[in-house]
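Assemble and predict.
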Amino acid sequence: MKNPLESIRESKPLVHHITNWVTIYDCANITRAFGALPIMAHAPEECADMTGISTVFVLNIGTLTTELIDAMILSAKAANEKNMPVVLDAVGVGATKFRDEMAAKILDSVRVDIIKGNYSEIAKLAGENAITRGVEATSIEADPRKVAKEFAKARSCVVVMTGAEDIISDGERTFVVKNGHELMGSIVGTGCMAASIIGSFAGVNSDLCEAAKDALCYFGIAGQLAAEKSAGPGTFKMYLYDEVYNLSDERAQSMMNFEEQ
Amino acid sequence: MKNPLESIRESKPLVHHITNWVTIYDCANITRAFGALPIMAHAPEECADMTGISTVFVLNIGTLTTELIDAMILSAKAANEKNMPVVLDAVGVGATKFRDEMAAKILDSVRVDIIKGNYSEIAKLAGENAITRGVEATSIEADPRKVAKEFAKARSCVVVMTGAEDIISDGERTFVVKNGHELMGSIVGTGCMAASIIGSFAGVNSDLCEAAKDALCYFGIAGQLAAEKSAGPGTFKMYLYDEVYNLSDERAQSMMNFEEQ
Amino acid sequence: MKNPLESIRESKPLVHHITNWVTIYDCANITRAFGALPIMAHAPEECADMTGISTVFVLNIGTLTTELIDAMILSAKAANEKNMPVVLDAVGVGATKFRDEMAAKILDSVRVDIIKGNYSEIAKLAGENAITRGVEATSIEADPRKVAKEFAKARSCVVVMTGAEDIISDGERTFVVKNGHELMGSIVGTGCMAASIIGSFAGVNSDLCEAAKDALCYFGIAGQLAAEKSAGPGTFKMYLYDEVYNLSDERAQSMMNFEEQ
């Protein structure tokens, strides 16, 4: 897709989130900064209706409870019925048995179109040997590119593994995104924000593998531009929002740094 | 009222909120920046007691659940008994049936002194034809000034409709506030913050229509001053807090831009 | 301890929080800025497991519910079994009967190693005459240094009273920390952040009294450095994160300002 940002700003996709209580503000605010419209709603009485008027559904299990998981499944079913993209951010899978079980419950109950996590979260979901330290990735034994590709093929979906290099695969194509800056790891929430951004790009591009790749390139580029001006995580986070807001497709296209394999 | 900011900073009204999980931090932080004291507490076992020691009660249904609505009604009843101002931010009314019903339940159960929302939220509450897209206003058919005035008269309260122009009416007087800057719409939460600020001003001024008008003028002025220095939503949000904190009644009075009709 | 920051950055203690919904992001983000790893998880099905893989457990009753209190007790018991430090931030004790009861329930059910609060919160916990205005301290009759020391001795724990001067006592030693800046009180959340930082320092120093003293000195120093560049609470909060991130043990040691009594 040539101009994803322009498309987002024009069509303003409504991105329904059921997410965690730590980064919920930044999930909403980065969605808005990219030009999409965030909506957060998790009451079981309305969540499926809210999904029904939305363009994309993003779910994030960072501070999951059984009630939230039930609401996520209600909303994801509504999204499935409308053939609307569903993005799962599998935060903390591999840290506790409960998270592993709840993530499995989601994947068994509904169709998820894009599964995102860090290296150990995705490896664990894919059945590899992996432990997540809280919400922090640990090193995994398997080759991450192979894990992403095979898991994507097995589930017929797009798999996104975030880390120093981001890996995106739909089982056929595999992209390795090299945009980004280490300061992105110095603040809490960039992973969650990435899922919201992937959702925003998926709201305007039916090629979900490309949408995820573009989203991570663009976000990484904004991070690179912000880092140039920043003296630490405080200034970095502020400039990150400015750079996202002021980014153009033209500038982003000239800075994209990824490989297709 | 001549010096609302000075009054807030002197008497430090305690503004009890039961609000949403997206903007709860900014609701608290902007209340503090204006000089009032925020308190957030929603447990049914204590919420009415917390209202009982407060000056104003602000409720916001952004991420409502039935449990939160019950807590809001408990607290609003305690506020009603003390003749304390109650401010309702009707976030997302018009987006789902559940929101419409819960807002109606609040309005049927307790006295709300100031009802705030964007154009389509208030129009929907007032029985007009209106749909809210998530939490985003859509254009409404009716004349917003007329909607605000008639709804205020019908409910004997102050109605605040926020948008490019903010409309405040108590059924007799109608103010149109023109302060503000478009960057305020580039970040999530300025609407919720506005309700907290209206609550803070209502904590020192028994003329609630004037309090709401002053609150929106002052907030808009801080937004204008912040926008002058800002390169995007990141820098804007940071400077907004500085400008609120450093604002004086004298400076604000010289920049107020509103009409009375 | 000579180099607490270096130790935190090297060993990256995992700091499990069950905290409030207002400042949860800043609790996580300041933990990360100091070099530790935050994890927030409160579901009863997993919270004890999450504590089990952590280094420290921090609990904060700012927006308590009975469900959250139950989860806190589950996690604190897991922490007690592992002899892991437990830090309690007694937010709002003295404001409502429910808070007083829930804080007492925690202290009766589990071992808390560090109890933190403002002057009136700790005075109330210690059985003194004290009222908290929402979450704001009010002046107390008793000598705060004496309250801290005697309460610490009675409970065989470390007591931290935050205010213009921070008082830390284990019943034998009493430290009075004079680092800090008044702008720290201009933003919401510095108290909650302080508990997270104390937790991070407690994750690398078994002398918990010293850990708490060092944590408050270092945080206060970052506040002083940030204040030099700041024009208000917006810029201050941003620079605070930068200063924490860029602080070195060497610089901090040269600026520490405390008395031992």
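Residues 208-229 of chain A form the longest helix (22 residues).
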